From TrEMBL:
The lineage of its organism: Bacteria, Bacillati, Bacillota, Bacilli, Bacillales. This is Cof-type HAD-IIB family hydrolase. GO terms for cellular component: cytosol. GO terms for molecular function: magnesium ion binding; phosphatase activity. It comes from Halobacillus litoralis. Keywords: Hydrolase.
Length: 272
């Protein structure tokens, strides 16, 4: 039985301009009322996940910044991880040569070196403004402690950058394409799976008692946890190949679990 339902945000539950389908909202509310609770696992910041949950009208556990921060549905922090200062400095110096937008995220803020129309476009998809910090490189690892460093650009550049980052820092960090326009760099062993494991260990449930839905490469680690993984039909082919089922919408994943009789009832998930 499924005792926790996990959804990604961008490209999954959350569309362009922060759009959320009414069918997904209704399905999530019905599921939580009668059965297992919800967790959101996203590359976004925790306060952004909270805002999405408010818009959906539900409460939920939160795995933010690809597993760097984990909170339960009462707001208790379960886990937090940021970059070592020396490593963060080396990364920011190395990626400074990349012809892409660079952002540095802390627990609740995002920084970049200069303002331009591309930064404005990125900001429009966030729930907060990007802070322009001209001396960002000098502050990283000192007054700015990163939890995530990201490069933004067109898909072709993102895929090339992801390969170069893997070659340079593959043994020291976790990196993955979180969206076709973004490659994320995280502290080693920080990903959605490790974040979810931190969460479910306290509930005494097993990985195969969760179901998850996502659309990008940063969702693959949670797909590996359970046989009940769902990929969005808009996902990259390599992502869809790793999921057990492909769906067009989040509510279809919930409906599929329900049809299979896999959604645990409230009393079975009372401690989660």
């Amino acid at each position: 039985m499924i005792k926790l339902f996990v959804t990604d945000l961008d490209g999954t539950l959350l569309g362009a301009d922060h759009y959320i389908k009414n069918e997904d909202i209704d399905a999530l509310n019905r599921m939580i009322e009668d059965g297992p609770p919800l967790a959101v696992a996203s590359g976004r910041m925790d306060h952004e996940i909270i805002e999405v949950l408010k818009r959906v009208g539900v409460n939920g556990h939160r795995v933010s910044q690809n597993g760097a921060f984990v909170f339960d549905n009462e707001g208790t922090q379960i886990h937090a991880k940021t970059f070592d200062s020396e490593l963060a400095q080396r990364i920011i110096q190395a990626v400074d040569k990349e012809p892409m937008i660079k952002t540095v995220s802390t627990a609740d803020e995002t920084f970049t070196k200069e303002s331009n129309r591309f930064v404005d476009m990125i900001s429009e998809q966030m729930f907060h403004d990007i802070i322009i910090q001209p001396d960002l490189n000098e502050k990283v690892g000192h007054t700015i402690t990163p939890s995530k460093i990201a490069l933004h650009g067109i898909e072709a550049d993102v895929m090339k950058a992801a390969k170069r980052i893997e070659e340079l820092f593959g043994k020291e960090i976790d990196s993955f394409v979180s969206h076709e326009t973004c490659v994320d760099m995280m502290p080693k062993s920080i990903n959605k799976q490790t974040g979810l494991r931190q969460l479910i260990e306290g509930f005494g449930i097993q990985p195969d008692e969760i179901a998850c839905v996502g659309d990008s490469f940063n969702d693959l680690s949670m797909f590996e946890m359970t046989p009940y993984s769902y990929a969005m039909s808009t996902a990259h082919d390599q992502v869809k190949e790793k999921a057990s089922t492909v769906v067009d919408h989040v509510h279809e994943a919930i409906e599929d679990l329900d049809k299979k009789g896999l959604l645990s009832k409230k009393e079975q998930a009372a401690d989660i």
